[in-house]
Amino acid sequence: MFDWFKKKIAKPEYDPLNMSLTNLKKGFVLDYMSKTWLVTKEYEYDWGNNDFTMEYQLTSSNENIFLHVEEDDNLKLLVSKPVNFSTVGENLASYIRKNEQPPGHLEFGGRSFSLISETAGHCREMTSERWEPFIAWDFEEPSGQYILSLEQWGEGDFEAYLGKIAFEYEFKDILPGG
Q1: In this structure, what are the phi and psi dihedrals at residue 122, rounded to the nearest 5 degrees?
Q2: pTM
Q3: For 57-63, which contacts have Cβ atoms below 8 Å and span 24 or more sequence positions?
Q4: DSSP letters along 122-164, please?
Q5: Has residue 68 been placed in a domain?
């Protein structure tokens, strides 16, 4: 009786005493590599066949990195930074336009990378309902620790990211935002 006087309290989507990287939202903070990072953007990727992954832009001082989180049988994490596409390969954009894919092998930053996947998908920033189509090519170096990702958005907008495989234990003190 008199339930309309009781204040309804929304339950959070996470357990504040047991935070995980799968709970991240814009405004959260966390520690990684001896720095405190703020989650400034959230992205959702749709790879088709009901396969979705998340990516978070993390900012510390004037540095931005991206944390890609994939929940499969286990948690897969990749921390990447954007790199200048033109430094990845001379005339690489022209090569991709002509051949509709990059070469199978690339040298970058003193490392050799081999193409391991080509995937078409859609991406959206979580503040938007607009999905953008793109193609991603992932290259791996022999140790499996570094991933070079090339992305094509539309007919000719190319981006490149150099990433390193990360582990959940490297992230500490995950706290919800304001």
Answers
A1: -135, 145
A2: 0.88
A3: 58/30, 58/32, 60/35, 60/36, 61/35, 63/35
A4: EEEETT----EEEEEEEEE-TTSSEEEEEEEETTTEEEEEEEE
A5: no
Question: Total domain count for the chain?
Answer: 1
38 lies in some domain: no
Indicate whether 82 belongs to any domain. Answer: no
- pLDDT, tens digit only, all 178 positions of the chain: 455 454 555 555 666 667 889 989 999 999 999 999 999 999 999 999 999 999 999 999 989 999 999 998 889 999 999 999 999 988 999 999 999 999 999 999 999 999 999 999 999 999 999 999 999 999 999 999 999 999 999 988 999 999 999 999 999 999 997 6
3-state secondary structure of 105: strand
Q: What is the CATH number of the domain that holds 135?
A: 2.30.30
Range of the domain at 116: 90-158
